[in-house]
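Review form for a predicted model. The reviewer records the input and the model, then writes brief findings.
Reviewer: anonymous (R2)
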Amino acid sequence: MRLHSLLAMTDLGLTLVTGEDELDRFVRWVVTTDMLDPSRYLSGGELVLTGMQWRREPGNSETFVAALAKAKVAGLAAGDALYGEVPADIVDACRKHRIPLFRVPEHIAFATVTETVNRNLSTGRAADLTAILDRHRQLVSGGGLDSVLDLIHRTLGTPCWVVSSTGRVVAGATKTLPDQVRAALLSARRLPHVLSHENTRYSLFAVDPDRTSRIADWFVVFESDHKDWSEERRALTSELAAVVSLERARQDDRQSAEGRLAQELIELIVSDAKPAEIISRLELTGLGLSDRYLAVAATADSGQVRPGELRAVLREILYGASPAAGVVDGEAIVLVALGETTDLDDSIHRAIEALLPGLQGSRLAVGISGEADGEGLRGAVEEARYARRMAAERPHPTSVVRHDELATHMLLLASVPDEVRRMFRVRLLDPLAVYDKDNRSDLVHTLETFLEVSGSWTKCADLLHLHVNTLRYRIQRIEELTNRDLSRLEDRVDFFLALALR
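Model under review:
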């Protein structure tokens, strides 16, 4: 906004006293002061409002105006309330130092001038910045997002960040973004959302909410309440979202040579390709034959999270580890080299569970293999895919099955058809459950405790607070109802499996 625009704001009634040749100066902000030398609080480009309380004698005018000139302010506006008009010594000092001088009528409050000018400044800045961002949209692939966000910060005075669904700060202000803000990106019921944290307000926006699921999207965070913004400044967020969306697309590796090679590697592994073909493709992707790997397989049970998005989510979780990712038959599969990391499967598990607030009705099933070298990749992928199928049978929104679970009896149970498992459980446990219901007894719990202590009569009786003879009577009743013998290992195993199937 230029100084000559002030004269067009008729509601303010400002009149120009001197400085006709300087009206093309830009106004950056409005400052009110009655200090004799306010230069330490000025940074240039301000429209200074003053009631002239600093003027004790005519010589003060030279001191005051010289300080404004030193600070390179845009102009001075003096109120009529104290003197009725601007004293001649102030006018002379403004002419001498080439400071444009405006007169503010007595009935116009300085707050009105400040509010009106700043509102117009905000509108103009947002409009200008929108145009700049539109140009940056064409340049972002070369300069990255940091320069764009820095432009917004410097121009509007608002720190801002671009954040992934895992909370990783992709670009933005150097100051730390609170963890509570990162968590709200997924947990907020709807976006945009305003979050208050330690007396600071943050506005949270999704980059592509209409076409991308919440857990796969990126987000823009402003240290400001968007509800107080002008319409023009709100429109700025759409332009910034477009810029961020371009950068996210640029970082999507599916169209790159590396991404295509990774997809081909995954397809070879799950097919009947010969080991030599797999090893050859492995080397082309830059992965080493002697490295140790984990395989991760994941699916979502609804159309809200597409396989390609799930692939991107896994790559984001493994950011920095250079994973090889692909999609086969709607299942996202990732291979990641372990390096010196010892708890990567724990990190993946925690990251998947952290996505829960953003699922919005979807369910994720994830399987994680054990370690394997390059020659064991097929086995690792098969293990991860089988673990993923086990995870899909569980009712939890985020279900993760790791390789250590596949080494238990549950691996065998998961491969048995549902109807067979149900009949096995009913045949062994239903007689006990019916007896408990009819007689208000506790045979099922007694059986479970007895097996947990490996058939120790004393330990079981202590845990159940029973006399050993009472426990013996209950075990005898269990054996009679089921026609089994709990002294036999085979029958104990059957009961153990039946209880696990509940």
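Findings: The chain has a mean pLDDT of 85.
Further findings: Residues 3 and 23 are 5 Å apart (CA to CA).
Recommendation: see findings above.
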